[in-house]
Amino acid sequence: MSVSERLAALGVDMPAVVPPVASYIPAKRHGDLVYTSGQLPMVQGALPATGKVGESEGLVAPADAKTYARQCALNAIAAAAALVGGVDNLTGVLKLTGFVASVPDFTGQPGVINGASEFLGEVFGETGAHARSAVGVPVLPLDSPVEVEVIFTVA
């Protein structure tokens, strides 16, 4: 099954590429690899939530942050696909790096970034298996709770 067929089966529409919020490009190709810039969980030009991830009231819940990590991965696919002429020219995922803006006592960053990893596995199947880092940070651009960057392989 192709990437576009998997996305359709999942009921996922490809979003527009998120415009950069500073001086960079959304994705860059080098040989058979595409590197994405950090992707925020933007939906129609806006963040669905802001703030730190943690277990206490008033913080972004880890389950919500996991959903936002999934959106970051979708935005990364959109950025890479726009660069290479469509999602079906993306052949797999090499590496994912996820950042979680979290309170100091939160240690669930891997579970949050699973939102991106699991989604990439659904979209790319076996070629979606990837190396990964999940990093806790004090703050992210625009006060986003999560940010993801992906290295894709290309046909």
TrEMBL record:
PANTHER family documented for this protein: ENDORIBONUCLEASE L-PSP_CHORISMATE MUTASE-LIKE DOMAIN-CONTAINING PROTEIN (PTHR43760:SF1), ENDORIBONUCLEASE-RELATED (PTHR43760)
Please name the Gene3D superfamilies in this protein's record: RutC-like
State the CDD domains in the record.
YjgF_YER057c_UK114_like_1
| Name recorded for this polypeptide | LysR family transcriptional regulator
Family annotation (InterPro entries): Endoribo_LPSP/chorism_mut-like (IPR013813), RutC-like_sf (IPR035959)
- Signal sequence coordinates: none
Q: Which residues form the Endoribonuclease L-PSP/chorismate mutase-like domain?
A: 5-148
Cite a single Pfam family from the UniProt record.
Answer: YjgF_endoribonc
| Cross-referenced SUPFAM superfamilies | YjgF-like
